């Protein structure tokens, strides 16, 4: 009976003996794979984890598949556009329309080259003349601002307009005096490309 009790005790001790745990270390940051998301190089670790430990981060597989699908879609769209075929759900692009290609095959219409001048009254008294579009003709706005300020002896500065595009704000009402100065100072800007905003409508300067 004592032998039986001893054997049960030894069996119990063997059952309680912990087994060695295998730890998978990341091949990028050297941390245990399950701790990669807390490290500073998690973005760099993602490809390695996706390949070697997908069960730890199932969302990475979904993310990778989504990116791959988007990449294939962009490549297909780019191929169709280069062949002059409009992708499904998109209107066909006129051959006369100029387009600008962006990374990923996305396209954007090239902005029409024109200078738009508008007189804005602020605080019911302060008048400012805004000039938009000079940069589309290769004019450096900071230089143009200095020249306008010097020419009309007033303050002029480059600011971001309502659409987040940079424009020049010139203090004072110089809208109709500024056209001749622009065409003389920057010959690449034709007078036919200059417009005024009057009563909310765009009208040609000539």
UniProtKB/TrEMBL annotation:
Q: What name appears for this protein in its UniProt entry?
A: Translation machinery-associated protein 22
In terms of NCBIfam families, this protein maps to: DRP1
InterPro entries from the UniProt entry: DENR/SUI1_TIF, DENR_C, DENR_eukaryotes, DENR_N, SUI1, SUI1_dom_sf
PROSITE patterns from the xrefs?
A: SUI1
Entry annotated with the keyword S-adenosyl-L-methionine: no
| Protein family per UniProt | Belongs to the DENR family.
Any Gene Ontology biological process: formation of translation preinitiation complex
Under the cellular component aspect of Gene Ontology, which terms does the record hold? Answer: cytoplasm; ribonucleoprotein complex; ribosome
- Ranges of residues in domain SUI1: 115-186
Compartments annotated for it: namely: Cytoplasm
Q: Name one Pfam family in it.
A: SUI1
Gene3D superfamilies for the chain:
SUI1-like domain
Question: Subunit comment for this entry?
Answer: Interacts with the 40S ribosomal subunit.
> Which domain of life, per UniProt?
Eukaryota
Give this protein's Gene Ontology molecular function annotations. Answer: mRNA binding; translation initiation factor activity
Question: Main location per UniProt?
Answer: cytoplasm
Give the span(s) annotated as Disordered.
83-107
Q: What is known of its domains?
A: The SUI1 domain may be involved in RNA binding.
Q: Which UniProt keywords apply?
A: Cytoplasm, Ribonucleoprotein, Ribosomal protein
């Amino acid at each position: 009976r004592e032998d039986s009790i001893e054997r049960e005790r030894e069996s119990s001790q063997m059952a309680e003996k912990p087994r060695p745990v295998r730890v998978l270390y990341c091949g990028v940051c050297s941390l245990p794979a399950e701790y990669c998301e807390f490290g500073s190089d998690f973005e760099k670790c993602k490809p390695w984890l996706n390949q070697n430990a997908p069960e730890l981060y199932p969302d990475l597989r979904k993310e990778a598949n989504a990116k791959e699908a988007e990449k294939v879609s962009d490549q297909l769209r780019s191929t169709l556009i280069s062949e002059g075929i409009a992708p499904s759900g998109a209107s066909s692009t006129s051959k006369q329309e100029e387009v600008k290609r962006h990374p990923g095959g996305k396209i954007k219409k090239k902005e029409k080259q024109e200078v738009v001048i508008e007189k804005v009254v602020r605080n019911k008294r302060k008048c400012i003349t805004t000039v938009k579009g000079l940069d589309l003709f290769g004019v450096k706005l900071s230089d143009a601002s200095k020249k306008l300020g010097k020419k009309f002896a007033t303050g002029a500065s480059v600011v971001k307009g309502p659409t987040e595009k940079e424009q020049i704000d010139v203090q004072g009402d110089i809208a109709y005096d500024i056209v001749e100065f622009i065409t003389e100072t920057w010959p690449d800007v034709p007078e036919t490309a200059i417009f005024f905003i009057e009563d909310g409508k765009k009208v040609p300067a000539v």
